[in-house]
């Protein structure tokens, strides 16, 4: 018997579409905000759900739990988007590499890709058969976002790791401080590296399209380790494959454009090139000046970021001041999504996030009122 594929909730009207309009550089009455890793260990309710699930993978691979934790930050904070709770390593796990999470050590693979035979054996996974728990979660989250009046509260973001970032874990077998093994392959056997990256890119295209068909309304590509590459290598081994993914994605669904965001941590040097890759928005880490970034992209794409996550350890008045500083740096013009320059720390005091979200909304509304008055 063929298992029925999850269907997205019908295209309910969006109560708050500010995030999607900002990604498309359309006017908004405030700057939308969401946080990378907004459903995570800094929230006590997340930790309670994870304990019930028994493990991180038990949490991520159960659509009911994934839906529960996706919605948790929205219950605490008036965020402008939800992001699917999952992990960037779902694709190599679906390839049969044996993903494991060890307490205190993070993710690792039982079968790292090291030899020519390992590389030759890689295949694009059957998304429905191996990653149906992800698309099932997407569809369930969309339904859970519908309020009592049939309106969807906020948009849902789907995501994947970039081909290069996935390759880093697949070849190293775990996280790395110097990427020695994967970079050795890159320089010594670029043919093998390109084979890995091509399989990864085709897998990401299929994976993100499945998320979009299940109900994701924006797609984000996390190129977490792109900044570890040298200039020249970045363009060949990371950006080229991001470009391939963007060209292969469904860009309209349920009568709406599906915006695509690319985030390369440490990628400020290549901002213009990332902006020219076909994406709708570029994520910025905290090393990038948003004022200069806006000038550099010249209105071609929206920008997302770039607050240092460590600012959330500061007193609330400092958090509010830093939010205003970043909003002033970008200005009230369309095309800005407020976010952190990387994921929120597990040690962040949850109450400090309230100060950030409140200040971003309140101050950006005043900015736009001033723009209108001018």
UniProtKB/TrEMBL annotation:
Reactions catalysed: uroporphyrinogen III + 4 H(+) = coproporphyrinogen III + 4 CO2
Protein's organism: Robbsia betulipollinis
Site (Transition state stabilizer): 87
Name of the protein: Uroporphyrinogen decarboxylase
PANTHER family with a match to the protein in the record: METHYLTETRAHYDROFOLATE:HOMOCYSTEINE METHYLTRANSFERASE RELATED, UROPORPHYRINOGEN DECARBOXYLASE
Membership in a protein family: Belongs to the uroporphyrinogen decarboxylase family.
Function: Catalyzes the decarboxylation of four acetate groups of uroporphyrinogen-III to yield coproporphyrinogen-III.
Places the protein is found: Cytoplasm
Gene: hemE
């Amino acid at each position: 018997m063929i298992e029925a594929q999850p269907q997205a909730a019908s295209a309910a009207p969006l109560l708050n579409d500010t995030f999607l309009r900002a990604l498309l550089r359309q006017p908004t009455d405030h700057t939308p905000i969401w946080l990378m890793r907004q459903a995570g260990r800094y929230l006590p309710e997340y930790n309670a759900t994870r304990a019930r699930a028994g493990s991180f993978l038990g949490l991520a691979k159960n659509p009911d739990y994934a839906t529960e934790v996706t919605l948790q930050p929205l219950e605490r904070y008036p965020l402008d988007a939800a992001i699917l709770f999952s992990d960037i390593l779902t694709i190599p796990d679906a390839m049969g590499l044996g993903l494991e999470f060890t307490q205190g050590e993070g993710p690792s693979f039982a079968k790292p890709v090291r030899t020519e035979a390992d590389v030759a054996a890689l295949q694009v996974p059957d998304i429905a058969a191996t990653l149906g728990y992800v698309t099932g979660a997407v569809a369930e989250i969309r339904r859970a976002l519908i309020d009592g009046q049939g309106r969807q509260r906020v948009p849902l973001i789907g995501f994947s790791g970039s081909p290069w970032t996935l390759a880093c874990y697949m070849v190293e077998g775990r996280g790395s401080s110097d990427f020695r093994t994967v970079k050795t392959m890159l320089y010594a056997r670029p043919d093998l590296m390109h084979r890995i990256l091509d399989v990864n890119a085709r897998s990401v295209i299929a994976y993100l399209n499945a998320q979009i068909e299940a109900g994701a309304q924006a797609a984000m590509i996390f190129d977490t380790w792109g900044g570890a590459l040298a200039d020249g290598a970045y363009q060949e081994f990371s950006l080229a494959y991001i470009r391939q993914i963007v060209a292969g994605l469904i860009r309209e669904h349920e009568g709406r454009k599906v915006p695509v965001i690319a985030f390369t941590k440490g990628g400020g040097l290549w901002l213009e090139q990332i902006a020219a890759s076909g994406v709708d928005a570029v994520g910025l880490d905290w090393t990038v000046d948003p004022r200069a970034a806006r000038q550099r992209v010249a209105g071609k794409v929206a920008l997302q970021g770039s607050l240092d996550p460590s600012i959330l350890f500061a007193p609330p008045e400092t958090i509010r001041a830093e939010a205003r500083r970043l909003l002033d740096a970008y200005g009230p013009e369309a095309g800005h999504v407020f976010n952190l320059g990387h994921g929120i720390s597990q040690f962040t005091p949850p109450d400090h996030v309230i100060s950030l979200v409140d200040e971003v909304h309140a101050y950006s509304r005043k900015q736009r009122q001033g723009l209108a008055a001018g």
